[in-house]
């Protein structure tokens, strides 16, 4: 039964699906938005906060810490007065761009469709 749930043998071998592993690395729902913002280039915390205004300050802090801990985001501190902190993507974080683009394609196809047109698409 375990193998039926996954297209690969990873689930059968480890008890975890690849999707679960990805979600553990990314952490929270805001990770996708933070990664998308940082794909535009390095940003300071306040700039990120303005650009991703839907994220509360503590959630943004937690998300950045999680992404940094998992090697997707780099936190660089500059010895200025006051101290300047800049966030950017690591190679691992930048590599996630392909997955974000695929998600964007999916939402363009399925995200805004009313239920009636989705049913018509599925039945055709």
UniProtKB/TrEMBL annotation:
Entries under Gene3D superfamilies matching the protein: Winged helix-like DNA-binding domain superfamily/Winged helix DNA-binding domain (1.10.10.10)
PROSITE patterns in the cross-refs: HTH_HXLR
Keywords from the named record: DNA-binding, Transcription, Transcription regulation
Residue ranges of domain HTH hxlR-type in the record: 17-115
InterPro entries: HTH_HxlR, WH-like_DNA-bd_sf, WH_DNA-bd_sf
UniProt key word Membrane: no
An annotated Gene Ontology molecular function: DNA binding
Pfam family, one: HxlR
Protein origin, superkingdom: Bacteria
Secretion signal span: none
Protein name: Helix-turn-helix transcriptional regulator
Organism of origin: Paenibacillus sedimenti
């Amino acid at each position: 039964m375990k193998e039926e749930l996954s297209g690969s043998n990873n689930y059968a071998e480890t008890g975890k699906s690849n999707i679960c592993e990805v979600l553990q690395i990314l952490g929270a729902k805001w990770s996708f938005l933070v990664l998308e913002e940082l794909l535009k280039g390095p940003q300071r915390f306040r700039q990120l906060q303005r650009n991703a205004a839907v994220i509360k300050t503590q959630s943004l802090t937690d998300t950045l810490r999680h992404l940094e801990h998992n090697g997707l985001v780099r936190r660089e501190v500059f010895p200025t007065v006051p101290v300047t902190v800049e966030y950017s993507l690591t190679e691992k974080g930048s590599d996630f761009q392909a997955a974000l683009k695929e998600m964007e394609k999916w939402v363009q196809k399925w995200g805004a469709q009313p239920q009636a047109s989705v049913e018509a698409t599925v039945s055709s």
